[in-house]
Amino acid sequence: MSDETVTDETPTTAQAFGEQGQVDESRSASSRLEELEQEGDIAADYLEELLDIADLDGDLDMDVDGDRAAVSIVGADLSQLVGDNGEVLEALQELTRLAVYRETGERTRLMLDISGFRARKREELIQVANESVAKVRASGESVSLSAMTPFERKVVHDAVAAAGLSSESEGVEPRRYVVVLPE
């Protein structure tokens, strides 16, 4: 049993669910959008302080991309915040997620991009996925790709699924990779 007290502000089952027992999607979608926007605001504040401390110029763009908050830093040369193959970007994203967690008490799937690195990487990965799909269809055999970060694997899995095939991740971090499977 919980020690929480139900107040008049807590929606009843009838309020939270429609007559057929379906969740009132417009209300929950609206509140989820507000939560994601709040995550973006918290992340932007954190990143703005970081840029000030590092004495770097950059503009912050906030958006909601599907079911996650997305924050982009654009501007002058910010390659030092990306690092080789995005390692520094990955670390900054994790620190930003921790800052959001500290404020909200909730885990976040916030995505951080710096100088369009992730956007360019996404396009490259979609191309790799499409080429792999073509190889699998031509040979009828599965194709294993090189090790990838979780972000990279997600992009490939989504592109493979959009092409009508399936894929799976194998291996152990940091050498986890995608295998594109035949039909």
TrEMBL record:
GO terms for molecular function: DNA binding. SUPFAM superfamilies: R3H domain. Residues 1-35 are annotated as: Disordered. Keywords: DNA-binding. InterPro entries: Jag_KH, KH_dom-like_a/b, KhpB, R3H_dom, R3H_dom_sf, R3H_KhpB. Residues 24-35 have a biased composition (Basic and acidic residues). Residues 119-183 form the R3H domain. It comes from the Bacteria. PANTHER family: PROTEIN JAG (PTHR35800), RNA-BINDING PROTEIN KHPB (PTHR35800:SF1). This is Single-stranded DNA-binding protein.
